[in-house]
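Changelog entry: the Gamma-glutamylcyclotransferase record was regenerated in this release. Current contents:
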Amino acid sequence: MSELPFFVYGTLRPGEYNHDRFLRGRTATEEPALLAGALLYDGPGYPYLLRGAGCVTGDLVSAAPGHYEELVALLDLLEDGYDREVCDAVRTGDGATVRAWVYVATPAVRPGAAITGGDWLGHRPPPRRPGRPGSPLPQPRSGPPLPRTRPGSPLPGGPRTP
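Regenerated structure tokens:
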């Protein structure tokens, strides 16, 4: 199969924390897109997609030259427990239909709270930056650096967070 782009709909979207961890520097293009026939749910703290009568807002990301196999392996690890399926997403810029990969929650996942409108970025509160009052992100600390992965975690930067 050719190198399909990925339709991402949650924490892998540009500006989100998993985009910075897994996609930054590995993509050639990132374009807004829609996926019909899908519904989005809150995990909580991360979204997951199920097939259904709705539309999900996301982005089509294509791998930079030489990064496709690495990207597939990283995203398959991150999305462990989800099925990678082929879908037909629509680029919002020009209306073109693009065949892409999407990660779909398995039937064993019990539906959580539906994300009305199908847009994770419009659903969750905006991310806060470290150092601001009330920031949920870790503050700088003194002392020796901490390890970047926890024992048993195959992912760079820590445990799996879809």
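Residues 6-118 form a domain with the Hypothetical upf0131 protein ytfp fold (CATH 3.10.490.10).
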